[in-house]
Amino acid sequence: MESTTNPATKSTVQLQSEALFPLAWREGVYQAIYRRRDIRRFRPDPIPPAILARLLDAAHHAPSVGFMQPWTFLVISEQQTRLRVQDLFERERLAASHFFDEPEKSQYLSLKLAGILDAPLNLCVTCDPMRAGPTVLGRNSIPETDLYSTCCAIENFWLAARAEGLGVGWVSILKLPQLRAILGIPPHVIPVAYLCVGYPEAFSEQPELEQVGWRARLPLASVIAYERWGQTEHPAWIPLHTLLASPSTTIQTSGSITPLLAVAARIQPLDTHAMQAARTRQANLTKPQGSLGLLEEVSIQLAGITRKPCPRFSNKAVIILAADHGVATEGVSAYPQAVTAQMVQNFLAGRAAINVLARQAGARVVVADVGVCSDLPTHPQLLRKKIGYGTRSMTQGAAMSQQDALTAIMVGIEIVQNEVQRGLDLLAIGEMGIGNTTAASAIVAALTGRPVTEVTGRGTGIDEAGWKRKVACIEQALQLNRPNAADPLDVVAKVGGYEIAGLVGVILGAASSQVPVIIDGFIASTAALIVTELCPQVRSYLIASHSSVEIGHQVVLERMELRPLLNLNLRLGEGTGAVLAMHLLDNAVTLLSDMATFEEAGVAKQVAIS
Ligand SMILES: Cc1cc2nc3c(=O)[nH]c(=O)nc-3n(C[C@H](O)[C@H](O)[C@H](O)COP(=O)(O)O)c2cc1C
């Protein structure tokens, strides 16, 4: 039995979840980073002393070479001092303007580049190279590391200030000897930063210099090289190139793509040792080699995913995400939108098909509202993760913003990570959302370039006229929104749904925790397609449960090169096919571990004839 106290015996999943911050902490760190700005316009309100103390303490917790802590935080409030610094700044600002030609010169002079007098407080952060004596551990080769350490303290201060709602503006247009003289700083001490601190008039989305057209942020991919300086071509093992190259760069600066990248980066290739062990055992079991067909293949895959030569599943769940679709009001479904909410209640009451099948398979049912268009009554089993009250109809514009798509993905990651913390070892995914075959067909058409008629089915069972309407709606939506096939996030935002985007996160989160993901029918598989387009490594974590009646499903499975285990003419969704496949996976791994080998059974093995 595994010990929970001895780190040497902790499972990878345990170690990972302990190392991770809870989602809210993590998001907070990223938010402070993305929402920090250089501030030059301040309100006069004073800074509460307790907050200032926290900020200085955060700065003081920065890393420093040899732990030398070379910084001093010189807190300046006196008006007289600030007037002298302002005067120094003005002279330098004018002097620097001569380095620019028109029209930059005039633009430079029109910029507000400091808030020395407006801010209630100024702070000079200095570096004392002698702080730890002449010999500092680690500084010998690069003497400037004491300055670098001081910059780390400044950044800590800047980020903590942002989290407290305070702005910081760095003023570097100052001559150091004069600044030293004004502040009485000894000659050997370096004034690294002169900061203006206070409550800002506003935190803008973009850097001010970007807003006024001075300079734009470089694309992330343009500042990354692989293995050698200047080598920008990504190696095959990097799953991130699509994300880095994606035109969603605008979101990268405004919010949450980085946590998503962090999750994607944790997805490992399957464990080849465990797979080899499983393969060898399969070859020695008392049966002709390969005679258990797909069950053999899947058992080897499951060994690779779980990193166990003989995996077993004792903690199964089906995660069902529910959401509504604006397009449902355009007559593309045989059922009214209200059915989504009603079915969620049915899941919670334990009376739907998925509940029956999940009980049979020994899987718990996890239900989340990620975008149902009405308020559902509270229920202890309902995860309330609503991102919006249904999407906008894709025929009127983008179904959701890219930020909402990212939020839905992060919600999916959070939901599955909670389940992983509860011990989840086998996952089925399902969905509920009237109108979502329309969204899935639109996504598949956009990503594969196939004609809409080839990927659009009858969903819940619409008639010929309804099908034609559905095809027309999708064609109109694709025409209007022009989703970018090279950018799966753009596609899911423009013509997808909250539950589909959420499932993208569920799949990513499960794969990053080495949990096998059994995908259900057309909609769940479409979410999987988005994931594999973003991050191809995820494919090896997927098991296709069944082949749906929906014609687009075949296209999706072929594109992912996945072979379904079952073909039962299912078209219900909810995760029903995926949960049915759990029995087969249990059978596959039990055969692997419990069948006798030829040696154990004393049965002669057929000698291969070459
Ligand atoms: C070392 C350093 C010195 C800076 N000096 C000045 C300055 O003298 N005046 C100014 O307006 N901004 C200054 N800035 C702010 C940058 O212009 C600003 O950080 C950049 O435009 C990015 O904007 P953001 O901080 O809002 O993301 C400085 C920033 C750094 C890191």
Describe the fold and architecture.
This protein is an alpha/beta fold and 610 residues long. The chain folds into 2 domains: 34-217, 3-Layer(aba) Sandwich (NADH Oxidase); 314-583, Rossmann fold. The chain is 46% helix and 10% strand. It is built from 25 helices and 10 strands. The strands form 2 sheets. A 6-stranded parallel beta sheet has the order 7-6-5-8-9-10, sandwiched between helices. A 4-stranded antiparallel beta sheet has the order 1-2-4-3, with helices on both faces. Helix 22 links the parallel strand 9 and strand 10 (542-544). The protein starts with 11 loop residues before the first helix and ends in a 9-residue tail after the last helix. The relative contact order is 0.10. Mean pLDDT is 90; it is low at 1-7 and 245-255. Bound molecules: flavin mononucleotide. Residues 37-38, 40, 113-114, 170-173, 207, 209 line the site of flavin mononucleotide (FMN).
Summarize the structure.
By secondary structure, the protein is an alpha/beta fold. Helix content is 46%, strand content 10%. The protein has helices at 12-19, 23-35, 49-60, 79-97, 104-110, 145-163, 176-183, 208-211, 241-245, 249-254, 257-265, 272-284, 293-306, 338-348, 353-361, 402-421, 436-448, 452-455, 464-481, 488-495, 498-512, 522-534, 551-560, 576-594, 598-601, and strands at residues 71-76, 121-127, 167-171, 190-198, 316-323, 363-371, 382-384, 426-432, 517-519, 542-544.
Secondary-structure blueprint:
Blueprint: H1 12-19, H2 23-35, H3 49-60, E1 71-76, H4 79-97, H5 104-110, E2 121-127, H6 145-163, E3 167-171, H7 176-183, E4 190-198, H8 208-211, H9 241-245, H10 249-254, H11 257-265, H12 272-284, H13 293-306, E5 316-323, H14 338-348, H15 353-361, E6 363-371, E7 382-384, H16 402-421, E8 426-432, H17 436-448, H18 452-455, H19 464-481, H20 488-495, H21 498-512, E9 517-519, H22 522-534, E10 542-544, H23 551-560, H24 576-594, H25 598-601
Parallel strand pairs: 5-6, 5-8, 6-7, 8-9, 9-10
Antiparallel strand pairs: 1-2, 2-4, 3-4
Helix pairs in contact: 2-6, 3-6, 4-7, 11-16, 11-21, 12-13, 13-24, 15-24, 16-20, 16-21, 17-19, 17-20, 17-22, 17-23, 21-22, 22-23
